[in-house]
Amino acid sequence: MDVAGAAAHRPQAAGDTGLSRALAFVLRHGAARLGIHIGADGFVPVDAILGHRQFRRYTAQDVQRVVQTNDKQRFTLRAHPHTGALLIRANQGHSVQVEELELEPVEEGRGNVPAQAVHGTFHRHWPRIRAEGLRRMSRRHIHLAAGLPGDTDIISGMRSSCDLAIFVDLRRALSDGIPFFLSANRVILTPGDGDGVLPPRYFQKVLQLKPTRCLLPLSGAE
Fold it and tell me: What's the rounded Cα separation, in Å, for the pair 13 and 70?
């Protein structure tokens, strides 16, 4: 049975922040660099991580606590089906090749198209994004949230420090053949088009969050 962040709304202890960040780096990007094998499904044995010198001061209980208290539910824990060994996976954000993340395709026929899809960013990036669109960069997906930070039931998908929110016309993009997926912690993910881009024509509106101000109209976004 998977043990996701069932207690994720409890505040994470300050001392666990470093472990959480280190786990995120290894599971999303750096496993091979540390000589740790990451499975096709994204899972890594917890013992393999704890055996590396960078993690030797931590225990399996520390890892479980970090997973359970992570407010973004970034990780999933489960027991190996045969050996019972504890495994951990990052739910999204990978730059490494991971084929079987249990991503749920977003499709009209499934009835799972979110009412909103919002990408959080910073005002300084807006001129480039407005001209070129959203790029997945070194990651495998562009990340979107199903709402704004602070909205009910929005767990992850946008940093709380973002000062700009780009609302994406999800149905229009889907109808044009751009795939979208839902991760285990309900982040909306897309690889973009063939060039790894979500073009500006799919932007519905842009909201400046600090202070709140709508930046529409998006003249020239087409």
Answer: 10
CB atoms within 10 A of CB 160: 10
Write out the residue range of the structural domain in which residue 48 sits: 14-90
> Do 197 and 115 lie in a common domain?
yes
Instruction: Determine the Cα–Cα distance for residues 137 and 211; give it in Å rounded to an integer.
Output: 28
Taking the model in full, what pTM does it have?
A: 0.56
What tens digit of pLDDT does each residue of 63-108 get?
A: 999 888 877 778 888 888 878 889 988 877 655 455 445 678 899 8
- Cα gap 63→46, rounded to integer Å: 8
Quote the CA–CA distance of 201 and 166 in Å, as a whole number.
12
At a CB cut-off of 8 Å and minimum separation 6, what does 161 contact? none
- One domain for residues 115 and 171: yes
pLDDT in tens, 146-182: 888 766 555 555 777 788 999 999 999 999 999 998 8
CA distance 23 to 20: 5
C-beta separation of 143 from 188 below 8 A: yes
Contacts of 203 by beta carbon, 8 Å cutoff, 6+ apart: 166, 167, 168, 169, 218, 221
